Automatic annotation (TrEMBL):
The lineage of its organism: Eukaryota, Viridiplantae, Streptophyta, Embryophyta, Tracheophyta. The chain crosses the membrane at residues 14-37. This is Alpha-L-fucosidase. Keywords: Membrane, Transmembrane, Transmembrane helix. It comes from the Eukaryota. The keyword RNA-binding does not apply. It comes from Zizania palustris (Northern wild rice). GO terms for cellular component: lysosome. The keyword Cell division does not apply. One of its GO terms (molecular function) is alpha-L-fucosidase activity. One of its GO terms (biological process) is glycoside catabolic process.
């Protein structure tokens, strides 16, 4: 097994087939890492995310009649908004080019790991990072250093939520506007057990955030109370600029955790609109952050199209981004 990137598609399809066959006999559907890994890689250029629901029967029919790799990849990448089967997804990735340690190889750097984090954890998947022991049976010092840097840059980004003190209102609240159980402000607490719920039977759902002061950010974190199901199918977020609402980002599903990156924007008022949902949408977290490490989303790249590619993500070393106080790379 060399680089996972060069894994042949056939190999994955065969793995999938066996997993699903096994899963069906036990009535338990578990999607194995190899499966999800390849979607993530292939979906690098897409602003898509895993809907963790599928129609497993359809999948099985497609697999057993003919190996339609394109269908399978498309289907497994996007999930199925009408699916009835819960299919948790895992993303396996190695910190090194291959699965095992070689003296001649170097670990990925922390910004590349951050990119992988956005595209796995930030797309509603579990990230499993392989860190192979060296020939002494120990984790190499350079791998440990990268892991520390990776931790530090994540802490730097996610320790300050600029929406933490926002005033939140919503189009409706279940049980009435004053009902604390489903209050819009519940989305500021980082817990999936406190969430906003709209009144039943609505066709549009909106949340308005007053940040109390003009704020710059380039990362958005959204969460659904996943124990109540993955409900959102389509949403978008807008910012008020010069008295006009402008869309910053739009997306499909949210799920347990969704991280969205975009060029730096600045404003005081934000609006989250759920455009389509399987059932009354529920939101458990809304946070905004500044990421100075992923260069793609910096101010300088404002005019460039969205480019989600690990190659263009690197640490900003210029002074405009401030000092690299926590990460040295
Ligand atoms: C393996 O890692 C340990 C701890 O970082 C280090 O002391 C040792 O020299 C490494 N072995 C090799 C063969 O690089
Ligand atoms: C929110 O309020 C707390 C307590 O007053 C304060 O420590 C924190 O810095 C504020 N956060 C923001 C983003 O304004
Ligand atoms: C991290 O690795 C990527 C991919 O190899 C590279 O393009 C990027 O320049 C590196 N970033 C830093 C800060 O070294
Ligand atoms: C960056 O660090 C240098 C040297 O420690 C310091 O003089 C400068 O004020 C710092 N700049 C910022 C933006 O913190």
């Amino acid at each position: 097994m060399t680089d996972l990137n060069s894994f042949s598609m056939k190999y994955h399809v065969v793995i999938m087939y066996f997993i699903f066959t096994l899963a069906f006999t036990s009535h338990l559907i578990i999607l194995q890492p190899a499966l999800c890994w390849i979607w993530r890689l292939l979906s690098y250029d897409e602003r898509e995310v895993c809907m963790l629901l599928m129609n497993a029967l359809l999948f099985k029919i497609k697999l057993s009649t003919y190996l339609d790799a394109n269908f399978i990849i498309r289907y497994s990448r996007s999930g199925d908004r009408f699916g009835q089967d819960w299919v948790p997804a895992e993303c396996d990735v190695s910190i090194r080019p291959g699965w095992f340690w070689h003296a001649s190889e170097k670990p990925k750097n922390a910004t590349t790991l951050l990119d992988i984090y956005y595209k796995s954890v930030g797309r509603n998947c579990l990230l499993i990072l392989n860190v192979p022991p060296n020939s002494s049976g120990l984790i190499s010092a350079e791998d440990m250093q990268v892991l520390q840097e990776f931790t530090e840059i994540r802490q730097t980004i996610f320790s300050q939520n600029f929406a933490a003190n926002a005033t939140v209102t919503a189009s409706t609240v279940r049980g009435g506007l004053g009902n604390p159980q489903f209050a819009p402000s519940n989305v500021l607490q980082e817990s999936i057990y406190s969430y906003w719920a709209p009144e039943e039977g609505q066709t549009s759902w909106e949340m308005l955030f007053d940040l109390r002061q003009s704020t710059s950010f380039n990362v958005l974190q959204l969460q659904e109370p996943i124990q109540m199901g993955q409900r959102t199918i389509k949403f978008h977020v807008e910012i008020l600029v010069d008295e006009l609402w402008q869309t910053i980002v739009e997306g499909t599903t949210i799920g347990y955790k969704r991280l969205l990156q975009f060029p730096v924007v600045e404003g005081q008022f934000l609006k989250l609109s759920v455009d389509s949902a399987r059932a009354d949408p529920l939101i458990s977290f809304f946070g905004i952050f500044i990421d100075p490490f992923s260069v793609t989303y910096s101010l300088e790249n404002h005019d460039k199209p969205f480019l989600v590619n690990s190659e263009v993500i690197m640490l900003r070393t210029d002074h405009s981004s401030g000092n690299k106080s926590t990460a040295t790379m």
